[in-house]
Design brief:
The protein is mostly helical and 154 residues long. The protein has a single domain, classed as Arc Repressor Mutant, subunit A, CATH 1.10.10.10. It contains seven helices and two strands, in the order H-H-H-E-E-H-H-H-H. Strands 1-2 form a two-stranded antiparallel sheet. Strand 1 and strand 2 form a beta hairpin. The radius of gyration is 19 Å and the shape is elongated.
Length: 154
């Protein structure tokens, strides 16, 4: 089953943007993410609507983060990208006639709800500032090099 990696990808893009002091174009971000600029524009358009990023057109324009990293949580981003499904598992049949399957579904449904609530709560605790700090700690643990950009995908 294919996994939905949108949240991971969007967080990745946002952290690349946070490392830059100047606006980043869709083409620059697409290159960093090894994707197409149209994918970046689609993703960031939703984040712009949520107030997390800002875009400027024209020479010197591009995308910037519109809020402090400590004010944006993984939950905020998850909500902004449309709350994709967190669980890859599900019930075999949603409205079974079999009493055994009804019992199984009830237990699974409770477990899925509990797991989703726990995961969403954790998303709400992790800010982009915490992710950026983790990145910087990992970068500092590596051997020194002249630029941050070499460490990002190195």
């Amino acid at each position: 089953m294919k996994r939905d990696s949108r949240l991971s990808g969007v967080l990745h893009v946002l952290l690349h943007m946070a490392e830059q002091r100047a606006p980043m174009t869709s083409d620059q971000l697409a290159k960093a993410m090894q994707t197409h600029a149209v994918v970046i524009r689609r993703i960031l358009g939703g984040l712009r609507d949520a107030g997390f990023v800002h875009s400027e057109k024209g020479h010197g324009g591009g995308w910037t983060i519109a809020k402090d990293l400590s004010a944006i949580t993984m939950r905020n981003v998850y909500d902004a990208i449309g709350r994709p499904s967190l669980m890859a598992m599900g019930n075999r049949t949603e409205a079974p006639g079999c009493l055994v399957e009804q019992a199984v579904n009830a237990a699974l449904d409770t477990s899925f709800r509990d797991a989703e609530a726990l995961l969403l709560a954790r998303f709400g605790e992790v800010t982009l500032a915490a992710l950026a700090a983790d990145f910087h700690a990992r970068m500092a643990a590596r051997s020194p090099s002249p630029t941050t950009q070499e460490h990002i995908h190195g």
